Amino acid sequence: MRYVLGGSYYGLWSCSFTEMRLYKFVLIIFSALLLSVSQPWWFSFSPVFGKSAVVAQIVDIRKGEADRLLEQGIKQYQVSQFTAALQSWEQALKIYQEIQDRRGEGKVQGNLGAVFLGLEEILKLKLKADLVVLSACDTGRGRITGDGVIGLSRSLFIAGTPSVIVSLWAVPDAPTAELMTEFYKNLYKNKNRLDKAQALRMVMLKMKDKYSDSPRKWAAFTLIGESE
């Protein structure tokens, strides 16, 4: 079967059903390209693929970028890169607000609104604590200079703390919680018999027996400063 589409100088123009479907498809694509001139690029193919599906895909991509920036900021904060962490969180917050992700906004604002101490702020403190434990990841790292490593531990010493426990690499959550719980128990129950270094050593030996195949889970922590 053939269909008459119109006339021309040479007579009527007719086409088959298959040809008509092809012309219709070409017309749709051409219309989409015309729309792209005045609308954002992700709406260009909405007549073909559906606007809602394309927008949802774009939102997922943006959310993935915001999630990456959020985690990046956390890692930067853990290694004392405070300025870089703030920049990452601010970028993530902007994206979350753009895509109206309220949960993501809450996570970022929780980090930004937490008690945030930089090195200069710590130096201004007058600490009377006998021991400060920094049990997060890589808390023993810092900037290497001719005078040694400049990081959180040195700032805490200057602020008045005689002893600091830090981690030397990224530590897993569950084994770290277990190690710290046992450490505080040893320190409290045996405070007249064990000093800080001995209490830490005892719990690390216990963790070594439990996780003998994975030193990463128990060997990251070290005591800096006075042991008593």
> Which residues form runs of ≥5 with pLDDT under 50?
1-15, 41-46
The CATH top-level class label of the largest domain: Alpha Beta
What general form does the structure show? elongated
CATH topology-level name of the largest domain: Rossmann fold
Q: What portion of residues belong to β-strands?
A: 5-15%
The beta-strand count equals 7
Number of domains: 3
User: Which CATH architecture of the largest domain?
Assistant: 3-Layer(aba) Sandwich
What features would you highlight for this structure?
228 residues; alpha+beta; Rossmann fold; 3 domains; three-stranded mixed beta sheet
In short:
The chain is α+β, with helices and mostly antiparallel strands and 228 residues long. The protein has three domains: 39 residues; 64 residues; 106 residues, 3-Layer(aba) Sandwich (Rossmann fold).
Explain how this protein is built.
The chain has 3 domains: 2-40; 50-113; 120-225, Rossmann fold, CATH 3.40.50. Helix 4 packs antiparallel against helix 5 (102-113) and helix 8 (173-189) packs across helix 9 (196-210). The longest helix is centred in the first third of the chain and has 28 residues, at 51-78. It has helices spanning 17-35, 46-49, 51-78, 82-98, 102-113, 119-123, 152-159, 173-189, 196-210; strands spanning 2-8, 11-16, 132-133, 142-145, 148-151, 163-167, 221-225. The protein contains 9 helices and 7 strands. Strands 3-6-7 form a 3-stranded mixed beta sheet, sandwiched between helices.
